[in-house]
Amino acid sequence: MTNSLSKKPSMAYSTSSSKKSGFRMTPIFNGLQPLKMAVHPCTADSLPKNRIFQQAARTIFPLCIAIGLLLGVDALAGPEEDRLVMRNYYSERFPDVPMQEFANGLYAFDEIARDQWLEMEDFPSYEIAVEDGQALFELPFANGKSYANCFDNGGIGVRQNYPYFDSNSGEVMTLELAINRCRENHNEEPLPYRTGDIAAIAAYMSYTSRGNVINVQVPPDNPAALAAYESGKEQYYTRRGQLNFSCASCHLQSAGLSLRADRLSTTLGQATHWPVYRAKWGEIGTIQHRFAECNSQVFAKPLEAQSVEYRNLEYFLTYMSNGLELNGPATRR
After folding, report:
1. Where do the structural domains in the chain lie, given as residue ranges?
2. Which residue in 42, 64, 150, 294 is the catalytic one?
3. Cβ(262)–Cβ(113) under 8 Å?
4. Pairing of strands 283-285, 276-278
5. What CATH architecture applies to the domain 29-123+230-303+325-332?
6. Has 182 been annotated as catalytic?
7. Helix (H, G, I), strand (E, B) or coil at 87
8. Other CB atoms within 10 A of residue 274 CB
9. What is the mean pLDDT of each run of 10 residues along the chain (333 residues)?
């Protein structure tokens, strides 16, 4: 593509101005300690009576209020109420972080890592994947049709609407699933999920959607769509694996704290930048590739890519980022 990667991820603030305003979250813990501190983080009696854990309590107890609301303590709460609770929680916890900055993951908190990331964006590792994805996207099928025949607006600038609940099939439709359904409808073999060609095609489609605002819908008059959303929310908050972690253990309870050499990103913004080229993968991969990796890291059995559970999880997670601009594909360590 000629000058194909001239678009750079949006930057809502400069690191120099953040230093002046005192923009920095002081970690309470390092490593995995905050997730091991108690059987249940919302039980006051379970916290040891020392200064460090008293500091933790000031973070954990407001979190418990947020989790309680998100898990449906209020029987009338719906997806939009969940989203507003999530945004308000992070806004109060990280008052110096502009809302769009949450789309940049750990780079919203770690100034040194942010500087390195911005340098990588001058020659991004995902560049080849985007170019390959464009070539694959424009390559006609054997019947003369192409991906452009399967998507609104010819597949250009549509990522912000995925995933969505397909009332006809009664299931959540992710972008990668839609790519393979397109192939099957035109008598082409489906592509393997998670990495490879399907991630490259999705990367190109995401690139054409940069700057568009995520606009995932959960129709309030569609019980099946609401059930899929609630299933995804349950998946996010359910502990699993030998470490007994949930997604929220790291990205809600411990967001912004240190895990080995990195800071943990927030739930808010996690769906804005996919597919991602990760140095540890050596290739570009989809968000569900990351879901599977996270499950493995807590010693839980990963699910199949595009399983109902992972699609519902992606539905919930993306809805939480409604209103943020897409900034994918992206580079992560």
Report:
1. 29-123+230-303+325-332
2. 294
3. yes
4. antiparallel
5. Orthogonal Bundle (1.10)
6. no
7. helix
8. 27
9. 51 38 30 32 37 43 51 64 96 93 90 88 93 98 98 98 97 98 98 97 98 97 97 97 95 86 89 95 96 96 97 98 97 87
